[in-house]
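Assemble and predict.
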Amino acid sequence: QKEVEQNSGPLSVPEGAIASLNCTYSDRVSQSFFWYRQYSGKSPELIMSIYSNGDKEDGRFTAQLNKASQYVSLLIRDSQPSDSATYLCAVKFPGSARQLTFGSGTQLTVLP
Amino acid sequence: EAQVTQNPRYLITVTGKKLTVTCSQNMNHEYMSWYRQDPGLGLRQIYYSMNVEVTDKGDVPEGYKVSRKEKRNFPLILESPSPNQTSLYFCASTLAAGSWGEQFFGPGTRLTVL
């Protein structure tokens, strides 16, 4: 069974702090990992993708991947109230080349 | 404007009454999918389509049908809806193979089956 696990939260951080969102997945040979953001009442939107071990930075967002530990994380630096949303981790598992498996999401609240 | 559109956005119906949710994209994307989103369960794929006349089951296909007669359209059909199909439904599209993770989602259809 292909699984993607996230802590559902809610996670609350003060404005300006670093928010850390975590995700684990079940298949060691997975190659493609994605973070989507979903505001309340809206559809998910892709914010980061990562394919190699290590860190990938895009503005205030950093995705971190550790394939040996089957762990991917998203760091949001200098968190803003506008970052308050649910963050979905998604994995493309081998053998399901045309499907993404999503985690249930972590709800983040950034407190002013 | 590049977008994925869905209609209707909200629908309340009764058990057994056939319904269709339409999905259309204007980006010339090859791949399209339908997902349902339920609290605590995340997004689960219902069906996907790799191109015109090519569809395949996702993780939760029971009770649903799809068709892909044109590249831009991918309707979701519930032949005999049941209350357990009450959910938030999203259509999504992706340009092509290799970019499968970069999905563009429609605005969602909230379906209630009484």
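The two ends of chain A are 40 Å apart (CA to CA).
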